[in-house]
Every structure is written in C-alpha cells, then in structure tokens.
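Could you help me review a protein record that somebody else here produced? What it holds is a sequence and that sequence's fold in token form. I have pasted the whole thing underneath without changing anything:
=====
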Amino acid sequence: MDQPHSVDAKIYPAGEGAFLSIADMLAYFEKMGAMRVSDLHIKIGTQPAYRIDGDLVRLKGGIVTEAIAEKLIFPLLGEKNIAALRQDSTVDCSYKYGTLQFRINAFLDNDGLTAAIRALGTDIPVPEKIGFPNTAWQDIIRRKQGLCLFTGITGAGKSTTIASLIQRINENRACRIITLEDPIEYIYPQHNSMISQRELGRDVDRFAHGLRSMMREDPDVIFVGEMRDAETVSLVLTAAETGHLVFSTLHTRDVVGTLTRILDFFPTDRQDEVRNQLSLGLRYVVCQKLVPQKGGNGRIVAMEILNSNYAVANLIRKGKFEQIYSQMQVKTKDQPDERMITLERHLALLVKQDQVELLEAQKWANDLKSFNDALKSGP
C-alpha cells in the first residue's frame, strides 16, 4: 500500500518535533481503555480530540489540514469506502486495530473531510459486568420470543449491552442468531449458536430488505442495529410477534419517549394497530446513560428498565403512556412480573453506593423531583 494510505505514516505534528500516525492515535485507546476513551474526532481547522470520560480533550499539536486529514482518515476506509464518501459525502465502516474494533463515520462538513472514530472492545463484557441494577438481563436471555429495545443517546453503550446478552445466548443455547448492523461492531465467535452477521452497504442495502430476507433464513434471535423508519419498525414488531427474540435500538432518553417515538413513525390511522402490536410483542425497554464515576475513574451505566407485564401491556394498548412511569416506580421487586426501575431510582442507588457524585447524578436525571424523592426513600 502506498505511503499516503498507510496507517503507520507519521504525518500529524504532535509538538516538540514528534509526529503521530493514525495507528499511534488508535493505540491510545488500547492504552487507556475503551470505557474511558470512547471516541477520536479528526476535523480540518482544529487539533484532533479524544472523548475522555465523556469530555472532549484536544491534542496539543498542530492544526489538521486537508492533506493531514486525508492521510489520517483514508487508510482506515479503503478504496471502496473512499469512493462512497466522495459520492455520498458520508460513509460508515469498521476497522480492527490491535484488540479493538473501531466504528468509523467519515463525512464532509463546511471545512472538508471529517471523521468520528468510536472504539469498541473486541472482548465482549459479560452481562454481570454491564451494570444492570437488577436481574432483568437473566429474563431477557431466557426468552424465546418478543422485542427487547435498548435506547439512549449515541455513545450510551447500547451496542455493548446487546452484544453481552447475545454472547451469553450464544454460549448457552443452540440456536440461529442473525444480525443486521451498520456497521458491524462486535464479532461473535461461533459457540453453541450459529451466528450470521450482515452489514449494511456490504451485505444488504437497507434494514427492511435484510429483515424481509431474514424471515426466510430460520432465525431464532434477531438483532437489528437501529429502527430508522416505519417499514423497519413494522417488520421488527411482526418478527417479535411470530416467535423470534428480537433486539433493536432507538435514540431516545426514556421509556415513555421510546414508546412515543415508535408511534411517531406511523400516521394517525395506523397508531391503534401499532399500539396493539407493541402490547403483544414488547417484552423489555432498557434506556441507559453512561455517567461519570466518582473519583474520575471512567463511567458507569445508569438504566431505566420497563418489563412489559400484563398491566403495562394494557396501558400500551390503551395509549396511557403517562401511567407507565408510576408502574416502574412501584414494580421493583425481584420477581418475574416486576424487576423494573426508573432512571432516577438507579441514579439515587449509585449515589447511595458512593459510585456517583450527587451533583453529577442530578445533571443526568430526566426528572429532578423524582430523583430527589428516590434519594430520600429507602434502598
């Protein structure tokens, strides 16, 4: 490969006469750990910046020029993705370096070539280490059918949580698992299950097309990287109703917002039908945020969990979403038809366990009054 497209070309002036390659920059993720250093941003007109414990930290070297940007970013893309970038002004792909897998979005902005590079560990964490506040994850991996949604902002750890659960199913059950991802993030080894991973743009053009063909491929467990349109949502709900365990994600901040967002995909005259499908097929909604730990030792997950029991399913069917939060406040026992928790209660627990600062927890709460009430209540 020629030098301009080599990951080892040392072309970024890092100061004091030192030059870094993109390989050097990716190696920093390994050194610090992907839970602490989550992203690298490269943009013309400013220094590269890492996201460390949730905050952007710029390197102290030179400003990135167009030539430097190309020599840092293009080696990660390859010729096919470079051509797609030039045609569509954006491209998603993945890249493996050392022990880490990286998800890359390269795009053009007002100044030119830009990239957001996210680190994903190739070692999938076990569910016990994810940070669930209860044993809901055990219910999820035992399920044979139904929809389990994992939501949160970009970088909230949704993909890692899902990967952990799929890997446990892979280890313990002899079933057929098929994923549709954009791009593939974690690579699953073949254990007791047979796993096929398909990537948008490489193996299939759209989630909906991949889902349609998947129904003829005898899956037991399905993972759809994101529900982006009404057609995909409709197919996911149908798959959950027809005997498949389905995992998917949405970019929503809480349970009620997740249910509302699903309905918003559809016109008014279809929403009764969709609510009925949700009431029958939905099993869990897990909304999560990554919150800075006390003492600056990385981040910890805070979750809101809805278990769609009979009462919740009835509220969904009737469209009484405003009553669902109160169900999560009271149905907290460690028994199959409960195991729910609000984000505010989980944040309060993390404060009481001395894992998160009080002021930090207040920043991340969706409802400050509910957080303060949870803080005053018993453990």
